[in-house]
Automatic annotation (TrEMBL):
Source organism per UniProt: Cynara cardunculus var. scolymus (Globe artichoke)
Pathway field: Protein modification; protein ubiquitination
InterPro entries on file: ARM-like, ARM-type_fold, ARM_PUB, PUB22/23/24-like, RING-Ubox_PUB, Ubox_domain, Znf_RING/FYVE/PHD
A single MF term (Gene Ontology): ubiquitin protein ligase activity
Stored SUPFAM superfamilies: ARM repeat (SSF48371), RING/U-box (SSF57850)
S-adenosyl-L-methionine as UniProt keyword: no
Superkingdom assignment: Eukaryota
Protein name: U-box domain-containing protein
Annotated EC: 2.3.2.27
Stored PROSITE patterns: U_BOX
Keywords (A to Z) from UniProt: Transferase, Ubl conjugation pathway
Catalytic activity: S-ubiquitinyl-[E2 ubiquitin-conjugating enzyme]-L-cysteine + [acceptor protein]-L-lysine = [E2 ubiquitin-conjugating enzyme]-L-cysteine + N(6)-ubiquitinyl-[acceptor protein]-L-lysine
């Protein structure tokens, strides 16, 4: 019985030795030939392409080198590239595919034949057809062609660059303006969907999207469009507002425009839409226009309960949303009516103190600015110093002291210093508690 057990164990050990030797052989036999490796990634090339210098690379690696890293020299030879165009090396690709097939037994999969990237001729042809369909008023034909453009753009970054460089955004924005006259929402939503793949938009495109007719259509989509349509509309709007101040006045004059933006905050669709909506509102309430116009616009947002919604949102939100929400709240607090709303909300001071030194430098600067404005408002209105007392109780004094030590902008430091001077006289009247925010904070002093 014991001998039988020993025999079985010896057989198992011999099996393990065989497997081990096979794995060693596998490593030797499936070593990738050097000329099949990309000189940049050192991995097996899936889509080999050749530069003007004659050196072959994997398309993904060399395009990242050229377009993302901005290096216009051959990585191997160091020679300046006379052309940034790459040529597919079909011979090397076929050799790699044959090698993969020969080594299939070792678990190596054959690399698929890559799809040919979009060419300037292909894109120009599609755009010409869009212009022709637009002239005939063929909305369905335009939609089909826009879908083709979108599919190409989604395939690769190279395709997207090719599409943008051939003036696609200009053609699509022109088409958007033309169909705006006919109030055809489905085709307008499709066009906006294509344009959002090409952000940021160039000035020529913005001039078409920022026209009165186009802006009215965008407002219509924000009111009646589907979820993706509203998302794309506000993304385009945010991009237009950040580049062209003139569109702000046109937008405000459109009936229901302010209400639809506020609704996107009060009834959020997705984080992307919320971020874009907050940015759009921020551009609207912090323009270089007249003070009276600004007050009127802010008052409209205040009437819709935007202050309360922003403060509620700040209790628990992402860093990106937090920064933008604080920026909008600071804009709303630039007039007394906005300060009154914020001052009367029980969550305002706790939320603002909590955001100090916790989210980002931008969030801290906005929070300090709002607290400073509220403090000035409290003194100006001769209110009891309830806000200051509350800030002291929840650790606001310590945070501002620390802010002066860890560094911030000069303007923020000045405001923090003013707040500390005002609150210092009250410290004896209230018991300050050490906030949990300091528990794991490494102080530089």
């Amino acid at each position: 019985m014991i001998s039988a057990y020993r025999t079985r164990r010896a057989a198992r050990n011999a099996d393990k030795i065989k497997k081990s030797s096979r794995s060693v052989d596998l490593e030797v036999e499936v070593a990738v030939p050097e000329h099949f490796r990309c000189p940049i990634s050192l991995e097996l090339m899936k889509d080999p392409v050749t530069l003007s210098t004659g050196i072959t690379y994997d398309r993904e690696s060399i395009e990242k080198w050229i377009y993302e890293d901005g290096k216009h020299m051959c990585p191997v030879t160091g020679m300046a590239l006379t052309s940034l165009e790459t040529v597919a090396n079909h011979m090397i690709r076929k050799m790699i595919q044959n090698w993969c097939v020969q080594n299939k037994s070792y678990g190596i999969d054959r690399i698929p034949t890559p799809r040919a990237p979009a060419s300037s001729y292909q894109v120009s042809e599609i755009l010409s057809k869009i212009v022709a369909m637009r002239g005939k008023g063929d909305a369905e034909g335009v939609m089909e062609l826009v879908v083709k453009i979108k599919d190409l753009a989604k395939e690769s970054e190279r395709n997207k660059r090719c599409i943008v460089s051939n003036g696609s955004s200009r053609v699509l924005s022109e088409t958007f303006e033309v169909f705006s006259c006919r109030e055809n929402l489905p085709v307008l939503e499709e066009i906006l969907s294509g344009l959002t793949l090409m952000l940021p938009l160039d000035q020529e495109t913005i001039s078409y999207i920022g026209s009165n007719r186009s802006l009215r259509s965008i407002v219509s989509i924000l009111k009646h469009g589907g979820l993706s349509g509203r998302r794309n509309a506000v993304l385009a709007l945010k991009d237009v507002f950040s580049s062209d101040q003139n569109t702000l006045h046109k937008f405000v004059e459109i009936e229901g425009s302010i209400e639809v933006l506020a609704k996107l905050i009060k009834e959020p669709i997705c984080p992307t839409t919320t971020n874009a909506s907050l940015l759009a509102i921020y551009h609207l309430i912090t323009p270089t226009s007249s003070l009276d116009q600004k007050k009127t616009l802010i008052s409209r947002f205040l009437e819709m309960g935007l202050t309360e919604k922003l403060i509620e949102m700040l209790v628990d939100c992402t860093r990106s949303v937090c920064e933008k929400a604080l920026g909008v709240l600071e804009g709303l607090c630039s007039i007394d009516e906005g300060l009154e709303k914020a001052y009367g909300n029980a969550l305002t001071v706790p939320v603002l103190v909590k955001k100090l030194l916790r989210v980002s430098d931008t969030a801290t600067e906005f929070s300090v600015s709002i607290l400073w404005n509220l403090s000035k408002y409290e003194k100006r209105m001769a209110y009891e110093e309830d806000m200051a007392m509350e800030a002291l109780q929840i650790g606001g004094f310590q945070k501002l002291l620390l802010l002066l030590q860890v560094g911030s902008s000069l303007k923020t430091k000045e405001k923090a210093g003013d707040l500390l001077k005002g609150w210092n006289s009250l410290r004896g009247r209230v018991e300050c508690i050490e906030t949990m925010d300091f528990k794991y904070l490494k102080r530089p002093f």
